[in-house]
Design brief:
By secondary structure, the chain is an alpha+beta fold. 22% of the residues lie in helices and 15% in strands. The chain contains five helices and 16 strands. The strands form seven sheets. The protein has a three-stranded antiparallel beta sheet, covered by helices on one side. A three-stranded mixed beta sheet has the order 2-6-5. Keywords: Copper, Glycoprotein, Melanin biosynthesis, Membrane, Metal-binding, Monooxygenase, Oxidoreductase, Signal, Transmembrane.
Length: 298
Amino acid sequence: MPIGTFLCLLALVRLSQQQFPRACATAEALLSKECCPIWEGDGSQCGQASGRGSCQDVTISEAPDGPQFPHSGVDDREQWPVVFYNRTCQCAGNFMGFNCADCKFGFFGPNCEEWRVSIRRNILHLTSSEKNKFIAYLNLAKNTISKDFVIATGTYNQMNNGSNPLFRDISVYDLFVWMHYYTSRDALLGGTDNVWRDIDFAHEAPAFLPWHRAFLLLWEHEIRKLSGDDSFTIPYWDWRDAESCDVCTDEYMGGRHPTNPNILSPASFFSSWQVRPVFFFFLPITTLDCSATTGRFL
């Protein structure tokens, strides 16, 4: 099953695996193909002692891939995540997360029993204080290393099938830039410049809309955890009748530089953000600061 479809279904049904948990980025975890970290709340794998979840074999769909991807066994993302892990935490009830430590979307409280409705507002209708808080949270995420997740800097084969882990730290914000890239990038078939470009698991498949909803819910969830603000929601931009980019101003996402149209205005808060190159599978990419979660998908 393509990773885009897998992550979409997993996020909406029983989210248990979000890319590479730091606790599972070890040779021991990769060689055993088991990602069932301890939940600190009770000291058991997946919080099993508290009924939060249990370590189980990953179930893979038998449905065939579409004709857009006529290959098999060449891409780490095929039948995700079994190339890396074939046993993961399967969470019960309203719990989710790589170790069942979190609550499913919409649920709160120590036992995930409190249901709350989240209101997402038009970004153009935010007060100055609300807008400033939103930008402050983005900046916090941009400058805080994720304590839960790391990113891969090589393929499973380049990791010698797990004996030589290749991972690196990344900020909470850039993690989601990378996740978007990892899901949608070309397929690497092995060898120099041997790639399959006619595939995009995040955008050229039925999972396009639900995958991006799940993606944004995860991003919102991680910012809530980072900020400690359970009331935080991602604002939206209603661009249906817009004749230009209403949020491309220094008040919001940043206007154009007066002399260089390829960079942000120096008056924009985001102009101080650094563009960080990430070398993944020896293909240089850039974590564009606003590309994955701004624009039409605020």
